Amino acid sequence: MKWLIYPHQPRPDGSLSNLQLLRLVRGASRVYWGIVLALILGTQLVKVELLEAMRIPPYIVGLLLTYWGILLLYGAGPITSHWSKMSKACCFLGLILLYFTPFLYWWEQAPEEIYYAVNAFLFWSCTIFILVLLNQMASELALRTKDKLFALEAHLSVWAVVLMLGIPLLLTVIYAFYFGLRHQTSPFAHLKVLIQGSPGHMSIIVLLPFALTIINLWKTKQKCIDLMRN
């Protein structure tokens, strides 16, 4: 019963300690709500006039909460042999993402600015890599707890992020440059027009990888809660 008195100690059967599970629960929960909040503020379903007046993107609030959760996931320790590298990479990319966040907002205000456009592209690139890592981490936890079905779902979500976010982003940028060179116009300004003029069903395709990641984070949290109760 030593692990009950010292929650940071592994259990006798080699399973995760209560402290690790608690950090995983808190981390997954914060990342979950952080992504949800960032999407709500990013799609302007809710407006924060104070931040907009200061030219600060409102969705940075959700991203800060997400980064807090990522730090907790990293603090859970080596869940698997790959967990430490994934969580460390996620922390690094999350920090870079916070740096690039204002540029996406500023590029929307001035789409012809090359510096803003490049940093906005890097913002979305970091976002995609973070989503991939979060789903991979969910898959690693599922493998550690011998939940093969959840591991498969999380692994498929990784491919969904790449196919529905990564490839479309790359193709959109290539087409914008092709259009700009052909018509002797700014490709970055046309890129914004291209995104705004995309059909409504494209929004569903873009949001689906986020939804899958959120679902996997919720399952991760619930699985850790169930393990703590056992």
What does this structure look like?
By secondary structure, this protein is mainly α. It has one domain (15-229). It is 80% helix and 0% strand. The protein has helices at 2-5, 18-42, 49-53, 60-75, 83-109, 114-144, 148-183, 187-196, 200-229. Helix 5 packs antiparallel against helix 6, helix 6 (114-144) runs parallel beside helix 9 (200-229) and helix 7 (148-183) crosses helix 8 (187-196). The longest helix has 36 residues, at 148-183. The protein is elongated. The chain starts with a helix and ends with a helix.
Task: Describe, in short, the structure shown.
This protein has 230 residues and is mainly α. Helix content is 80%, strand content 0%. The protein has one domain (15-229).
Helix content: over 70%
Overall geometry:
elongated
- Written as H for each helix and E for each strand, in order along the chain, the element string is HHHHHHHHH
Termini, distance in Å? 13 Å
Q: How many helical elements?
A: 9
Summarize the biggest pleated sheet. none
Radius of gyration: 20 Å
Number of domains: 1
Structural class: mainly alpha
Beta strand %? under 5%
Total beta strands:
0
Mean pLDDT: 82
Q: Which residues form runs of ≥5 with pLDDT under 50?
A: 1-10
Per-chain topology:
Elements: H1 2-5, H2 18-42, H3 49-53, H4 60-75, H5 83-109, H6 114-144, H7 148-183, H8 187-196, H9 200-229
Helix pairs in contact: 2-4, 2-9, 4-5, 5-6, 6-7, 6-9, 7-8, 7-9
Which key features would you list for this structure?
single chain; 230 residues; mainly alpha; elongated
